[in-house]
Fold this sequence. Notes:
CATH class of the largest domain: Mainly Beta
Distance between the termini: 71 Å
Low-confidence stretches: 20-43
Oligomer: single chain
Mean pLDDT: 78
Amino acid sequence: xxxxxxxxxRNETKAFKMRLAAMIVLSLALASCGxxxxxxxxxxxxxxxxxxxxxxxxxxxxGGEAAFILYxxxxxxxxxxxxxxxxxxxxxxxxxxxxxxxxIPILAEGETLRFGDSGEACAYYCGSDVELGGxxxxxxxxxxxxxxxxxxxxxx
Length: 156
């Protein structure tokens, strides 16, 4: 059967359909690449400040960006990193910014967070007199901006 539309019109329609199909495929691919949003990955923790019994702590902002500094029992030796918190099926993990190897497990126990053993991959973030594994912080009502590094600069 003969198509009554002019040849030019038929080719434009075919090209339009191909462009539309390509846009749909690209949109679906981009939507699937995103995975969970930052908000969904940090939903179990939420923004705020957790502090220890000294001057250390962990702060998390609305987007899941986080930082911590935890000190040795005496002196200024500390463990410190900036990155983000991700919540997975088993618990939470602190991922230092720009470090693909280090993953610091965090276990929530009510209002207390306990840092797990992170192994050699994360040794860079701690001074020689400090161990991160086993350190705990508790939810605080203070503002996250009150958490500072050794020099007094805010971490969050």
